[in-house]
Specification:
The chain is of the alpha+beta class. It has a domain of 85 residues: 2-Layer Sandwich (Alpha-Beta Plaits). It has 5 helices and 4 strands. The chain has a 4-stranded antiparallel β-sheet with strand order 2-3-1-4. α2 runs antiparallel to α5.
């Protein structure tokens, strides 16, 4: 479990996410996470403050290869994390870290909705066959 309450779960997300260990990745064990958080109306600045506080300690984790927080330029109050982790174990360790739990607990009152995608890269030949 990633610490978010069930009311923030995407339909099918838990089932899909739980199968990632069973799937082989095409390029490596690296996993890219894209997490989209929409603030409740009028709470974007506070949500941004909360999310910013979690960036530096997350980047310092051993399994973190990159961890970037973005602000959507077209939709006010929407924030996007783009993260790269060494493997699924690194993500699970991240979700148990005190700074992650603190960030979630502080963000809960400001988040209207969230979406999380766990991604593995697909190896594509540089010269595709015609």
């Amino acid at each position: 479990m990633d610490g978010w309450p069930a009311s923030f779960a995407e339909p099918g997300l838990q089932t899909w996410a739980s199968t990632i260990n069973e799937q082989e990745t095409s390029m490596s064990d690296e996993i890219r996470v894209v997490a989209i958080l929409q603030a409740k109306p009028g709470q974007g600045a506070e949500l941004e403050r909360v999310l910013r506080a979690g960036v530096a300690p997350s980047r310092a984790e051993a399994g973190c290869l990159s961890y970037e927080l973005h602000r959507d330029i077209d939709q006010e109050g929407r924030f996007v994390f783009v993260e790269t982790w060494a493997d699924r174990a690194a993500i699970e360790t991240h979700r148990q870290m005190p700074h992650y739990k603190t960030m979630i607990n502080a963000a809960l009152e400001h988040v209207l909705e969230r979406q999380v995608c766990l991604l593995s890269a697909i190896a594509v030949d540089s010269q595709p066959a015609l």
